Amino acid sequence: MILHADGNSFYASCEQIYRPDLRGKPVAVLSNNDGVIIALNKEGKACGIKRRNI
After folding, report:
1. What is the model's pLDDT at position 10?
2. Model's pTM, two decimal places?
3. What confidence score (pLDDT) does residue 5 get?
4. Is residue 3 part of a domain?
5. Residue 16 C-alpha from the chain's centroid
6. 53 lies in a domain?
7. Does residue 23 lie within any of the structural domains?
8. Residues 34, 3: Cα–Cα separation, whole Å
């Protein structure tokens, strides 16, 4: 058996569960100490926020 899970917006979705006031708003999750975006929700992507590949 093979399982594939696509976690493209997983961390942003989790943040919206814990913070319902963020639902429907652009959400970007940053990594520790370097400010790199590690997750974007679909609203954030629609606003044109981009993740930079390192």
Report:
1. 87
2. 0.70
3. 74
4. no
5. 10
6. no
7. yes
8. 32
* Angstrom distance (rounded) from CA 6 to CA 22: 22
Number of structural domains, the chain? Answer: 1
DSSP 1-22: -------TTHHHHHHHHH-GGG
* Burial (0-12, 13-18, 19+ Cβ within 10 Å), 39: buried
Determine the structural domain holding residue 14 and report its residue range. 10-46
The three-class DSSP label of residue 51 is coil
Three-class SS state of 26: coil
* pLDDT value of residue 35: 83
47: its two tokens: 């606003």
Q: Would 36 be classed as within a structural domain?
A: yes
pLDDT digits (tens, 9 = 90+) for 6-52: 677 888 888 899 999 999 999 998 888 888 888 888 999 999 988 87
